[in-house]
Amino acid sequence: MLYHAKHNKEGNDEVEMEPSYTAKSKIPMLYDPMDLARGSYGIHVDKYLGRSPCDGPAGYIFQKVTYSAGAVASKTNVGGMYKVCPDHMGFIYHDNETGTEVRINADGADLAGSDDPTPAGISGEAKLVPGDMILGAILQLVDTRSAENRTGFVTAGLVSNDSATPDTYGPELANDPSNFITGSAISGGKTSAANGLVSCSVASPNLNIYSPVVVATAASDLAPAAVGAPINAITVSGVSPPSTSSQIRFNLHVYALVGARQKTISHYTQPDPSFRMECLTRQFAEHPVSMIH
Question: Can you give the pTM of this predicted structure?
Answer without folding.
Answer: 0.86
